[in-house]
Amino acid sequence: MEQKGETPFRTARGYEIADDKKGAVTSSMEDYLEMIYRICLKKGYARVGMLSSMLNVKPSSASKMIFKLSGTGYIKYDRYGIIMLTDKGGAYGKYLLQRHNIIENFLSFLGSGDAFKETELIEHSLSERTVKNLDALLGFIKECGLTEKWQKKQDV
Known about the structure:
The chain is mainly alpha-helical. The chain has eight helices and two strands; from the N terminus they run H-H-H-H-E-E-H-H-H-H. It has a two-stranded antiparallel sheet.
C-alpha cells in the first residue's frame, strides 16, 4: 500500500506500461530509429530489408514497426520502400546513437564483459540526465588521470 509522499514501486514492465500510456517511444521503436539513423548516415536512406537484416528480425516485423513509426513524425516512408528521417527523427536518432556510444564507452571502461550487449539491454532504461552524467563522469576520470588507477584496481 502506497504511503502519501512515497514513490510507488513497480516492476520494470510496470514502468514501461506507465510510460507507454504517456505516449513514450518504446524500446523497440528506439532500436529501429537508432538503426535507421545509422543506415541513413551511410546511405542517406533506409529500406525495410536493410533494417530487418541489421536488426536480425523478419521483414514483416520491420514493416510493422515502420508503419507504427510513420505515424509518429519521426520518419517518412514512401511507396517505393524508401525510409527517410524527418528533422525530428534525425535529431532523436542522433541522440539515440550518442546515448548508445556513451553507455558502451562507460561499460567498456568499467571492464564489463560484453559492453555492447549490456548497452543494448540497459540503454532504454536510463534517463537523458543519467546518460549526460555518465559521459561527464567518464570525462572527469580521464581528465584527472585516473584511468590507470582504475585499470590497476580491475587487475587485482
